[in-house]
Amino acid sequence: MGNAGTLAVFFSRSGENYMVGNIEKGNGEILAGMVQSMLGVPVYEIASEAGYPADYDECSKAAKAERDMNMRPALRYPLPDMAGINAVVLVYPNWWGDLPMPVYTFLDSISTGGLRIYPVCTHEGNGIGLTDRCLAQAYPEAIVMRGAAFRGTDVQEKREKTEALLRSYLKDSGFTF
Ligand SMILES: Cc1cc2nc3c(=O)[nH]c(=O)nc-3n(C[C@H](O)[C@H](O)[C@H](O)COP(=O)(O)O)c2cc1C
């Protein structure tokens, strides 16, 4: 398997962040940039049109409310061209043990039949949790592959370690460099 037909997709939030204070680039955005340069694939950002409060606690509350209501927030950017795309490296944070709801908006909006999804989850202690299973449950027609988990603080502070772990995950997953 080569990298043709692969798209890197990320949801990531900058602003006040758990443990590392205010950051300019979210953890997932950094990881997605690494995926993009390692594999030479295009990247698409999932963002909610309304955005989220910069304040961590306020954001937590907003995210929880969206999740409790199983919302599909409108997306800020037009959908990417999915013609010829058969694999998505999906980078997202663990939010309340689930994926941020705009990620579901995105996946609901594209054709996921036979699409290979590689879940790459950043977190602050709970790992990938059940998020890969949430994906498999919500999109049974997709092929949810083995995922990877990265501690957000490591992504910010331990770039070399993060790059090495990401490279070996992508290699083990069959991507080429
Ligand atoms: C609304 C919200 C909920 C979160 N819930 C969890 C959680 O349940 N478990 C966990 O380990 N980390 C949780 N975190 C921490 C994030 O997963 C972690 O900081 C992640 O790396 C953020 O990625 P980003 O910078 O790309 O947005 C949460 C963060 C936010 C903002």
Task: Tell me about this structure.
- There is one protein chain.
- The chain has 177 residues and is of the alpha/beta class.
- It has one domain (6-172): Rossmann fold (3-Layer(aba) Sandwich), CATH 3.40.50.
- It is 36% helix and 20% strand.
- The chain has helices at residues 27-39, 56-68, 101-109, 131-138, 152-157, 159-172, and strands spanning 6-10, 15-17, 21-23, 43-45, 87-93, 116-123, 143-144, 148-151.
- Strands 1, 4, 5, 6, 7 and 8 form a six-stranded parallel β-sheet that branches. A two-stranded antiparallel ribbon has the order 2-3.
- Strand 2 and strand 3 (21-23) form a beta hairpin.
- Helix 1 crosses helix 6 (159-172).
- The protein starts with 5 loop residues before the first strand and ends in a 5-residue tail after the last helix.
- Bound molecules: flavin mononucleotide.
- Flavin mononucleotide (FMN) binds at residues 12-13, 17-18, 26-28, 59-60, 63, 93-97, 122-126, 152.
